[in-house]
């Protein structure tokens, strides 16, 4: 799909440019044809004016021949063929189709449009963005168009319509009202669908009905009928609304089913996630005061000269940035090698994994065996963490698209990883490279630690998912906040428990059951 990653959207623009080129060629030919037709018609007109006395005219054997020839051949060749015979168009269509087939191109579809709609809805929801401000490209409290673009009436209409289709009547009606406001006083240009007042009302009226505002729904429905008295749908709705209104007058008002928060959204960790992403919830100075920055060589001679720059972010569980770990050229290479292999990210384990709104991104895996150029990076990961990569997973490259996010989750497996990872055991440490700076949003959030880590290009974020006794540490629930502006590229490495026995021996006391209250919150 096109909505879950920026990399796919980039490809879309290339293909669009290609289609423009093809149609330019087509139009050029069509224009030539049209000029020919005009010339021909002019000639015929002149001849018709000149014809004078018909007896005389056809008395001339050449005129008779020319006229017949014109009617048999010229009209067909100059007018009928170019206009009615679509073979010219068919030829372009075939050539365009073949070219698109060759690059296995399938354009975006309704599902992509819905995905993009849900992405914007998520941004509004998580970052509390008012509709009219988002429509004007304003993201932060200051009145500034950070997005450098705004939405047209038809954009707002499309959003409102899609939102109402998924029963998001509250936001849906706001977008439709925004479309209405914008429609007056703004040329719609070529952008389709060109919206009319009636079209907006057709969705707005049922939306207010969905919200339980029957009176307004009825009023708006009447507005449709004022403009188009024979509007079938509105006539039907009028009867329904009036019936319901009468019932409401005599009985108690009916109950409406407003969209409920999903079970996921109701969770405490989700509510904390929102507040951490917004920057509303953060560590207190007291919590921060023991955090240090340091230069570290981890006992490796090379790094005594060029130490790692460590910035602690949380001590227990341990979370830290390591800055300037990757070079620009390395990051470019990683993204380059991954592009073209990206697939929609899934959640869940192996055979049971599915795509989900919980994780809207695309990813691919880079195996060390197949990519020997990664060996230096692999070595550096060992040096930074002091852990063995013997049991590590391949590198996972991830790209987030419009409103792309990863809702709160644990990186470790429920069953200590035995089913999926066998002797290698659970995911001990997550090492996450930020491959680019994100303009706005996209922080890695730890709801229980009140910590939002903004992406810093070239830096590595590390944290231990397990206690020292290798039991699951439920405080490490974390998430990728929705990307508000820009794109987000990261790359994950998961170090496992196996093979670390001499590098990070486990503790002597069991931590099993610690912070268990957080497990399902
Ligand atoms: O995108 C992020 O910052 C977090 C990603 C993450 O948690 C994961 O891929 O497991
Ligand atoms: Fe994660």
UniProtKB/TrEMBL annotation:
PROSITE patterns in the record: FE2OG_OXY
EC number(s) on file: 1.14.11.2
Gene3D superfamilies named among the record's database cross-references: 6.10.140.1460, q2cbj1_9rhob like domain, Tetratricopeptide repeat domain
Compartment(s) of residence: Endoplasmic reticulum lumen
Keyword Glycoprotein among record annotations: yes
Enzyme class name: oxidoreductase
Superkingdom of origin: Eukaryota
Pfam family, one: P4Ha_N
Keyword list, A-Z: Dioxygenase, Endoplasmic reticulum, Glycoprotein, Iron, Metal-binding, Oxidoreductase, Signal, Vitamin C
SMART domains the UniProt entry points to: P4Hc
Cofactors required: L-ascorbate
The keyword Cytoplasm is annotated on this UniProt entry: no
Sequence similarity: Belongs to the P4HA family.
Function: Catalyzes the post-translational formation of 4-hydroxyproline in -Xaa-Pro-Gly- sequences in collagens and other proteins.
Name the record gives this protein: procollagen-proline 4-dioxygenase
Organism listed in the record: Drosophila rhopaloa
